[in-house]
């Protein structure tokens, strides 16, 4: 890939493009405290109720019974996502306008045939991690070399969600390389913890974690190989995890606490499995963007991870099975 501009110029352009897609009337004057912002009047009473008082199943039922329109729901979550972005820097790509247009068409479909059998996710806004492809927007995965290269095809999962009637409206931030637990990169910067803006939101699905914690999304899609959903969940919604476990137990479902025997071995094993080629592929991508490693990537020392031999690979598989 040929880089025509300095990485800082590319990053500034991407951020300005994203920020320009937040309507002026949705702008936060002093983005410092989430509770004060949410009570500042940016969200109407009905929008607060839509985004605060329901889970995804309840939202779908209320759209089906016409208590809420898909447009009302989509607009409310787009607005709350815009607020969450200004507080925590959780979004990468914004397509609110397209989402609202889709929701209007879904409402028209229902009005034209009120007795139709609705698709399972009819009108439900769903946020997705930056790594999923959506035509017309980038999937940088935190790498400068993939900025300003909009996708032309869908990844399988977002296409499936659309086929089921969902409304996609934004993509969420990840770490440079998606290999660390801090959603920080040179393109969009760091996603902050919604409960404490001096802390990280975790990673690699950290943008999703922050967005959902602030109810800018009722349902978001991340990915997880080595904790990429679990880590942001602990960082952003730990109390909710405990409450979920209690409710599951109360419903008669067995909940098994996990105690890892050796976290250090587990981390070392997964990092070696991430890096079977000695991280040459990912280092080449970083170099092709003319960008430096961000602190979390630098700290794992990609260049110092050796390539694995076939014998090493067998040993790593054995260690993973044992863990």
From TrEMBL:
Pfam families: Amidase
InterPro entries, A to Z: Amidase_CS, Amidase_dom, AS_sf
UniProt keyword list: Hydrolase
Domain Amidase: 72-236
Catalysed reactions listed for this entry: a monocarboxylic acid amide + H2O = a monocarboxylate + NH4(+)
Family matches, as PROSITE patterns: AMIDASES
EC nos: 3.5.1.4
Family: Belongs to the amidase family.
Protein name listed in UniProt: amidase
Organism field: Zasmidium cellare
């Amino acid at each position: 890939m040929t880089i025509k501009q300095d990485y800082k110029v590319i990053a500034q352009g991407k951020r300005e493009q994203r920020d320009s897609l937040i309507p002026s009337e949705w702008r936060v004057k002093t983005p410092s405290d989430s509770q004060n912002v949410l009570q500042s009047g940016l969200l109407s009473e009905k929008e607060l109720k839509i985004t605060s008082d329901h889970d995804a199943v309840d939202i779908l039922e209320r759209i089906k019974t016409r208590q809420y329109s898909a447009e009302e729901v989509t607009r409310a979550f787009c607005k709350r996502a815009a607020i969450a972005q200004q507080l925590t820097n959780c979004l990468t790509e914004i397509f609110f306008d397209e989402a609202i247009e889709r929701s209007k068409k879904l409402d028209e479909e229902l009005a034209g045939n009120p007795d139709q059998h609705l698709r399972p996710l009819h009108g439900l806004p769903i946020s997705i991690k930056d790594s999923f492809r959506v035509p017309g927007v980038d999937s940088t995965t935190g790498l400068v070399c993939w900025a300003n290269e909009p996708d032309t095809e869908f990844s399988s999962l977002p296409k499936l969600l659309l086929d089921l009637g969902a409304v996609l409206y934004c993509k969420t931030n990840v770490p440079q390389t998606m290999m660390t637990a801090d959603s920080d990169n040179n393109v969009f910067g760091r996603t902050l913890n919604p409960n404490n803006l001096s802390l990280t939101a975790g990673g690699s699905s950290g943008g999703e974690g922050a967005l959902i914690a602030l109810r800018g999304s009722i349902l978001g899609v991340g990915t997880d190989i080595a904790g990429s959903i679990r880590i942001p969940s602990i960082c952003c919604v730990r109390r909710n995890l405990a409450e979920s476990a209690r409710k599951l137990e109360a419903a008669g479902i067995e909940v098994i606490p996990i105690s890892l025997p050796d976290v250090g071995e587990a981390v070392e094993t997964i990092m070696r499995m991430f890096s079977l080629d000695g991280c040459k592929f990912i280092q080449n991508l970083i170099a092709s963007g003319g960008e430096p490693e961000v602190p979390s990537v630098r700290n794992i020392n990609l260049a110092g991870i050796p390539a694995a031999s076939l014998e090493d690979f067998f040993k790593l598989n054995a260690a993973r099975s044992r863990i």
